[in-house]
Specification:
271 residues, 12 helices, mainly alpha, 65% helix
């Protein structure tokens, strides 16, 4: 497997420094290297794992993503051991691909296993926050709403307790926690969460428009699988979230497109 040595590193350099054709050239490097490799029977090799993981991250074909991410995850368990940090990160990468393809249930199993291992390993708070966050997203996508709320609340509580870190920003976790509640029709709970914690945070890198998009999208898409949701969706819900977030973050509250000069009330407000 010597031909794979440092290939992932070289491909990253080409991807970043190869100009307009860099990404395509980097992907061709990986594709050519893996052309005669069977991901089912290939041995657990560190260099091949690195190439397979990178290929899965860059590939556009869903089947290619799955088979090579699955190889990397399984080979990592064999090579490093099931609770080694590298194995856990490979499992999280594989779970992320599963989620992106609508396969929430197997992703949940991977995330739950990873969370238990990170906790047993005494890992730093950043890993614990991140896996709670990822697990909450997977559970919510699978309609396990109470469990999702439990994990996103754990992620938010720990993020607020330890302050800023290098992984999940406080603003990301707070908005995700509000989105879990909003997705299940718990608009006042989502609003209260944002109002309690939002004013103390720095939203310069997370504009209200992006947060409003997430809240409205989660509310709309989660409706299909949530047993708590009834009635027709409100097409103007994003406007209300945007007004609320502008008030909380102190951003300029310009008139929302499509509205009159009087902005729509926040989501949980009385009519």
């Amino acid at each position: 497997m010597n031909r794979f040595r440092h290939l992932a590193q070289r491909a990253r350099l080409v991807h970043l420094g190869g100009g307009a054709n860099g990404p395509e050239q980097a992907m061709l490097m990986l594709t050519d290297a893996l052309a005669d490799i069977d991901p089912i029977t290939a041995p657990a090799d560190a260099d091949l794992i690195a190439v397979a993981s990178l290929y899965a991250a860059w590939a556009t074909d869903p089947e290619d993503q799955l088979i090579w991410a699955r190889y990397a995850q399984r080979a990592g368990r064999v090579l490093y051991g099931p609770e080694h940090p590298r194995s856990l990160l490979l499992a999280e990468d594989y779970a992320g691909i599963l989620i992106a393809q609508g396969l929430a249930y197997p992703a949940i199993t991977l995330y739950e296993t990873a969370l238990g291992a990170w906790l047993r390993n005494g890992s730093d708070n950043e890993q614990i926050i991140n896996i709670h966050y990822l697990l909450a997203q997977a559970l919510h996508a699978d309609g396990q709403c109470a469990e999702a709320d439990e994990h996103i609340t754990a992620a938010l509580s720990l993020r607020l307790a330890v302050g800023r870190g290098h992984h999940r920003r406080i603003e990301d976790v707070l908005t995700a926690a509000a989105a879990v509640r909003a997705g299940c029709g718990r608009f006042r709970a989502a609003e209260r969460l944002l109002q309690i914690h939002g004013p103390q945070l720095d939203w310069r890198d997370y504009p209200p428009e992006a947060a409003a998009d997430l809240l409205a999208r989660t509310e709309r898409d989660h409706r299909r699988i949530c047993s708590r949701r009834t009635g027709a969706p409100d097409p103007h819900r994003r406007d209300g979230w945007l007004v609320l977030l502008q008030q909380i973050t102190g951003h300029s509250s310009a008139a929302v497109p499509g509205n009159s000069s009087t902005p729509r009330p926040p989501p949980g407000s009385a009519p």
